[in-house]
Amino acid sequence: MLSDLSLRVRIFLFFCLIAVGGIGVSSLALWVSYERVDDPDLIGAYVFAEILIAFGLLALIVGVWLLFDDNVAKPIERLSAQLRARAHAGVSTDVDLKAARYLGDLAPAAAGLAEQVADTALTTAEAVAAETAHLAAEKQRLTALLTEIPVAMLLAGPKHQIVLYDAQAAEVLAQIAHPRLNASLFDYLESTGLTDAYAEMNKTGKEVACTLTSAEGKQTYAARMKPLGDAPGYMLIFDDSTARIRPNEARPLIYDFDLLDTPVDDAFDNRLLHDLCFVVFDTETTGLLPHKDEIVQIGAVRVVKGRIVTGEQLNTLVDPGIPIPPASTRVHKVSDAMVQGAPDIAQAGRTFHQFARDAVIVAHNAPFDMAFLHRHAGRMGVEWDHPILDTVLLSAVLFGASETHTLDAVCERLEVTIPEALRHTALGDAVATAEALVRMLPMLKARGMTTFGAVIVETRKHGRLLEDLN
Hints:
Elements: H1 7-37, H2 43-88, H3 106-147, E1 152-156, E2 162-166, H4 167-174, H5 191-204, E3 208-213, E4 220-228, E5 231-238, E6 253-255, E7 277-285, E8 295-304, E9 307-317, H6 326-332, H7 345-355, E10 360-363, H8 366-375, H9 377-380, E11 388-390, H10 391-399, H11 407-413, H12 426-446, H13 452-460, H14 463-469
Parallel strand pairs: 7-10, 10-11
Antiparallel strand pairs: 1-2, 1-5, 2-6, 3-4, 4-5, 7-8, 8-9
Helix pairs in contact: 1-2, 2-3, 2-12, 10-12, 10-13
């Protein structure tokens, strides 16, 4: 359907229709004139005239289309993207009036409306900031109280996904795998003990003592499972945890209570973007050839419920097994000396694979980074079958394929600041990409793309961008 095509494509098809119609009308007129003259000797002249008219019309229409595309279609596309960025991504960049100068009063009117919305948003933000400060104080008080509790504690939803964990629980989980919000407890603990205790707790409505075994079967934990009252899920307390917080050490409390109500849909394409867990990552390498160069650093962060989860990061150097060229070191600052004793790609890859389990992997120019991981999948003993999102393609969907889609350009449009010291470091670029993703998610929703499947359909239309980029 035409409504599924972009504005620029529809305008292009409109000019194609004009071209076809113009050539058809001129051909018909010359044919009628030739029939009236009824002189066979003139047919060559009429054919030549038609060729001249056709080429002349095509040249004129192509010229007018190019002018219209540059001065009307592209500015409209750019203006709509800028307004969405202001409305849904919190961007405060002024509307580009110069680029939209041929759109009459549309751009100034849009800019005025944007300013009015910004003023209203500022008033609302001030009220929200005051409430946020109150909630922050409450959280700090809760954190201080939890610090005095000498046991590890976490909350889990009815599907046994992690909803909250404190630092002591994080230390317990880290003995098995990297602690992750929204991860299944079955990644850490043998399922039978959990499900049996959960069934008994639901039957009695009371606290249940249980003995849990780690997923690999090497450790056991004495624990208690407590119901959460009217809320679904449960609290899990590890009574014999040896994890302890040192005095005066900050104790992070990582949680998202909305996860208690997150529905689980077996059809992944139908899942809402807001309900997905994303792992945004970046790599630094010895060079730009995935078939022969190697990874020297992996950085990743997790995004749950549309926000970056503070404290859930992966940042590891990787021993590439080959010398790092000085030219590459000048870019990412990783030297041969720094990677001595670091894990090799097999170990680092397994760690990252565990960190990204049950998540959508996100990267800027994902085919480049994923090519390194796929090449060593055999050594890692894993399959990289995660769903993938690419922020290059998301940027093309939201801002138009004609824009520049480098990480720096995307971050500039979305007002994401990359500290100079962190640029071209794996974790620094991963954090910047994650911040860009968080700003783009509400923009995608505003465009009617609320599910993962809907976004993938749109990104596939711009796949040629990645082919050209690589």
